[in-house]
Amino acid sequence: MFEGFSLETIALPEATLRVRVGGKGKPLLLLHGHPRTHATWHRVAPLLGEKFTVVCPDLRGFGQSSKPADTPDHSGSSKRAKARDCLALMQQLGFARFGLAGHDRGAYTAFRTAMDHPEAVDKLAILDAIPIADALARCDARFAAAWWHWFFFGQPEKPERAILADPDAWYGGSADAMGQEAYEDFLNAIHDPKTVHGMVEDYRAGLGIDREHDEADRKAGRTLACPLRVLWSARDDLEDLHGDILAIWRKWAPQVTGRSLDCAHHMAEELPQELARELSEFFSQ
Q: Which Pfam families match (predicted)?
């Protein structure tokens, strides 16, 4: 897994992250979603490594990265806090400006990084997401029924108790679909109470402080300064729930293109070659 990549533990001002680094060329930071770790990129990163220096961290709260202290507003798990980690990580690796792609919950951190630090993000790719504020503003009975976990995870204590009672049944997954080493890494994460709490805290931040940050940007008329590429899974429910995905992103990004891919939600595991080709073409331009 990740042949030719190094595996490092990097101490940053606010967090300590487990990070894979490999390849050569322009820097490209890849952010995983829930409930995955950086290992979700193991089929994509080596392909991108032919053109890019690829950096794949476990986000704070996830995998084997450090877990933030709990606060009433969940600010330690906010996408703004994780964006500061992204900036600090890439600066420590010697990159003042970089390409950035995020999937699922990692897409929210990627979006916040580009919004808060436009001087650092050259191009942005969002995979399977619309902004948190838009998702919540558009929430109806269909969304609540399909994405009920957003609201369950927002509750205190009960989500962790439910997940940890049987993590394998809760999350599913298989070595055949994910790859043996990636699956083992995933299992270690979902069986760790501190990691489960950290992942759930990401959702608690999403319902509160993250939404506030998005709404403040919207009110101020702030938009992305860099080109945006949006990709989403045709066999997941993002388009079914929200309709024209690019129309939603055009309100946030003057330069946006995108399309759906013929896969289910975990595109990096299901369609690695096509995803790598899409990202390579976008970030090479």
A: Abhydrolase_1
* Other Cβ atoms within 10 Å of 156 Cβ, number: 8
The closest alpha carbon to 40, from 173, 229, 231, 147, belongs to: 173
Considering the four listed CATH numbers 3.40.190.10, 3.40.50.1820, 3.30.70.870, 2.30.30.90, the one that applies to the domain covering 6-284 is 3.40.50.1820
pLDDT digits (tens, 9 = 90+) for 91-142: 999 999 999 999 999 999 999 999 999 999 999 999 999 999 999 999 999 9
DSSP 140: -
User: pLDDT by residue (tens digit) across 219-231?
Assistant: 999 999 999 999 9
pTM: 0.98
The residue with tokens 């439910």 is 162
- The verdict on whether 265 is a catalytic residue reads yes
182: Cβ–Cβ under 8 A, 6 or more apart, which residues? 1, 39, 40, 42, 269
Set 104, 185, 210, 217: catalytic member? 104
What DSSP element (H or E) covers 127? strand 121-127
